[in-house]
Amino acid sequence: xxxxxxALKRELASLGASPLxxxxxxxxxxxxxxSLLEKKIKDLSYxxxxxxxxxxxxxxxxxxxxxxxxxxxxxxKFSEYWKAKGFVVLQEDALRLNWDALQLPSxxxxxxxxxxxxxxxxxxxxxxxxxxxxxxLLMFQKEVAQRVMASPSTASxxxxxxxxxxxxxxxxxxxxxxxxxxPPPRVASRVLHFQRKKILSSDYIQFVKKAFSQRRKYLLKNxxxxxxxxxxxxxxxxxxAEELSPEHFEILYEKAKGCDK
Length: 261
Fold this sequence. Notes:
single chain, Rossmann fold, Helicase, Ruva Protein, domain 3, 2 domains, 7-stranded mixed sheet, 9 strands, elongated
């Protein structure tokens, strides 16, 4: 793997660039991991691709040239690198971008080796749309990936778990250790695939957020629902948010919304 790292260093030097910790830049250099991702990207069915943080194109090169591709790159040097190659590039923060204005084709794939500091927020926001993004292939810090896929009544289960699993069918793809990257992060990473089930409303997400706002309190202390509704779902009035599945949260939200009318 040292050859890949040295080649990456030379290419970065030619651009006058270096990994920026502030942007969470860790470049994937493991050929085996890249080969698995190449196969996954080529096996998926999509009509367009949006990639966040392409860097020098470790994943970008796996996207068929016939597929419309939009790159979102905040780093000015990498943004100019891709623009010079003729790609459509938005030099913007993915969390501040107006995604509804992108006019993406249906069945668009969102692809990214995500900067760790934006990963949770990005999953929550894309769970609200746009509808055109019907699947995502994302690399996370291992701990964040565990939270995404966590089951009820576990320490990792929370807002991110409920939102992700309400909006998407989530599946594990692979795990990569720190040595698979340059510079190596302190923790392992995981790649997850998301297939959209539905678009979530901001009201639903706020409802779930309130439910977990004081995790150790009983659910009834955090959200305005009646004990009778909880009992109708088979729970006691002393249930905590972490005990409810995403499906229970969806039912509870609809019943609570109906009571407000």
